[in-house]
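DATA SHEET
Item: assembly model
Revision: 1
Owner: S.N.
Input lines:
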Amino acid sequence: MTDASANNSASGKSSLLVQDARTRKRNAVEARFKWYGITAIAIGCVFLILLVTAITFNGSRAFRQTFVTVPVTLDAAAIEAAEASMMKTSQYRKMIEAALLTEVAEANIETDMDAGKLGDMLSSSAPAQMREFVLANPNRIGDTVSFDFLTSSRVDGYLKGRVTRDSLANDKNLDAAHLDLVDQMRDIGMVVKRFNIDFIIGSDASEERPEQAGMGVSILGSLFMMFVVLLLSLPIGVAASIYLEEFAPKSRWTDLIEVNISNLAAVPSIVFGILGVAVFIQIGHLPKSAPLVGGLVLTLMTLPTIIISTRAALKAVPPSIREAALGVGASKMQSVFHHVLPLAMPGILTGTIIGLAQALGETAPLLLIGMVGFIATNYPTGPIDGFLSPNSAMPAQIYEWAKRADPAYYERAWGGIIILLVFLLAMNVIAVILRRRFERRW
Amino acid sequence: MSFMKLTASTLAIAAVSATAAVARDNVQIAGSSTVLPYASIVAEAFGENTDFPTPVVESGGSSAGLKAFCEGVGENTIDIANASRAIKSSEIETCAANGVTDIIQVRIGYDGIVFASDINGNSFEFTPSDWYLALAAELPVDGAMVANPNTNWAEVNEKFADQPIQAFIPGTKHGTREVFDEKVILQGCEDTGAMAAILEINGGDEDAAEEACMTIRGDGLSVDIDGDYTETLARIAADTNGIGVFGLAFYENNTDKLQVATMNGVVPSTASIAAAEYPVSRPLYFYIKAAHIGAIPGLKEYAQFFVSDELAGPDGPLAAYGLVSDPELAATQAMVANEVTMGSN
């Protein structure tokens, strides 16, 4: 600014103090252009703020969940009878419902509901939670154990403001009378809403119980996929770029390959998904819905990104480094691997991380290879199982939740987006740090 | 260079373990997104109540599921296909060509198809005739086919409120659309006498007449929804004049936003559908690859668990979610227990 004004005043012909028409016009154009720019940035910021508020507003509720504390006496005879039946959990449910009724009566809360009706406020995950505890702690049979059970998604929605007495008018899962009880139970601390770690580490749940669903297994699925992508795309991508950049003769063939790599980077990801189904599942007979296949498909998608960024990083190393190495008698290979590659490494890593982040958020190809549905239910039992057993991935899980019927799943989809964004943000921050710390300028 | 070695050995491990994966220990299911909620509830309960791992249920549609089902026999093919319609003879042929010859057909119950609109809007009491008159592309008038002139529900039936016609119906890739076409539109075509009129016009060609009945208007008053019911719900939220087609279970989960219309004076519910009073429903199925029974642990147990009274019965969790229990469930249970395949009786 100071320079510009100095020039202006120096070149003024008629007067140093009065601007002529042309100067005023030029200044006006410049001011207008600045305003265009500021408006563009402001519009961008508004959208960003809208997006972030919408996500945090809708998603943050998914991290808190409503629990009800019920002391249940683990009656040996009842448990034995339950274990002998086919639907074991329905027997456990009866025990919990009876215990809940007693507990409500003891707290001097009046209700004319029977145990079964009262039990509608509990999540259908409660019996499984109790059975798991009993199987894990057989020595506690006979004791009275206090359980923190999840409430049903409707009760949870009531405490989060999503469900009201009016909205329950036609609902057959819960009545307004339940909500009166919930109010009283909350007053005495029997019902609490608190942070729910299972949303982050838990597995997917059926449509019946959104309150139990978590991202944990699909996060593992995504990590296994990213591992495959990293392990394949980094060496292949770097090798291809080094050859193209340092060794390949400039010919029509290498030009053709270069153009195609650039084109490949712009191919829609769904194309890679169809390719993946055809090549890896139908011809290669790899297991469906497996993170290994997902990783292979995403590798195809990530390769061009990595090759392009690696080549840019190699190009940025000054030729004088190569020539100096060659000058003191290093072979071409030595000059590349001892001098050029280490200097290009920060750029390569940054490109790789950006490529991985892109792959992490990719949904379309995963839909085709069967990673959507009720998939992310079992934790992998080991590393090999993790690659080969059916699993979902974070974006696919979010997509699946968004289309389920219960509105509580919609809230969880927003929550899932927060988790996914945290991962993406972390990867981008790592990329920025790497670049800041290790990048060299010449 | 050690990185290359690492990569090579990882690839080798992956290749070896891929062949080791032949010992698959969980049941794999794919198919209809209408059956998915029920299958997921059963799969979850199955994992909780037995020592078998929780089966995985992929969505993607009845046709995609049956296609994957018919790809062949072996560990890397699915064991069960969920379908919201019966398997077609062409699919059975494809199956047979790929070695899938023994198929057990299991009917798990019925799914109700309901018409619902915004909770604060007008209420409707439909008959199939109303829908035919509202959505048909062309109506027979005085011995000739003319483009459907109705644009308001009040024009269709004078007892309806003054509300522009805006319908959101399932796209043609959905199994629900087939039921809608046959049980609502075609029925309405016959009830209004339009069928007879069309037959008169075209000289008695019944196939062409049915075709003419079931052709839906393309002028924007009826919109095909290719996505899920959540998309239909969003469309109605955006346009409160809209009336959408939903599954009963979906409606029952969203009673705070939707009001349901009656059909022939009957309110849709699991009870009225089971009693065959509510006319628009369809059976839901799953298909088991009999060759996999014994090879895949838990496959038969899962099927038996699914059709047991505790789950698929009128008081089970599936009915609570919206499945209309099959009155002939006992016969289905016996069929699964005896592994009766299609065409063997």
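QC remark: The radius of gyration of chain B is 23 Å.
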